[in-house]
Amino acid sequence: MPRGPVPPYIEVANALRVRLDDGEWLPGEPLPSLAELAAEYGVSRGTARRAIQVLVAEGRLTVAQGWGTFVAER
Question: How far apart are CA 22 and CA 3, in angstroms?
């Protein structure tokens, strides 16, 4: 069955997943801010936030309100 184009938030989540797998950020380390990620990937902050939410749901990231997004301990 043919599939449509991949949504931008999935593309960003996939790119972040690769960077996590490559060890760019270690457990407990913060990720760049939503604004920085959005600028880096050329997407809106909402799209970057949704990508982060995907990785939080997978247990790969944690979000501390007011502190930022961190790599989850494995």
Answer: 28
The SS3 assignment for 28 reads coil
As a whole number, mean pLDDT of residues 19-33 equals 96
Q: What separation in angstroms does the CA of 32 have from each of 1, 3, 4, 6?
A: 37, 32, 30, 23
Contact 49, 11 (CB under 8 A): no
Q: How far is 21 from 15, CA to CA, in rounded Å?
A: 10
Confidence of residue 74 (pLDDT cuts 50, 70, 90): confident
Tokens for 35, please give them.
Answer: 């604004």
Predicted TM-score (pTM) of this structure: 0.91
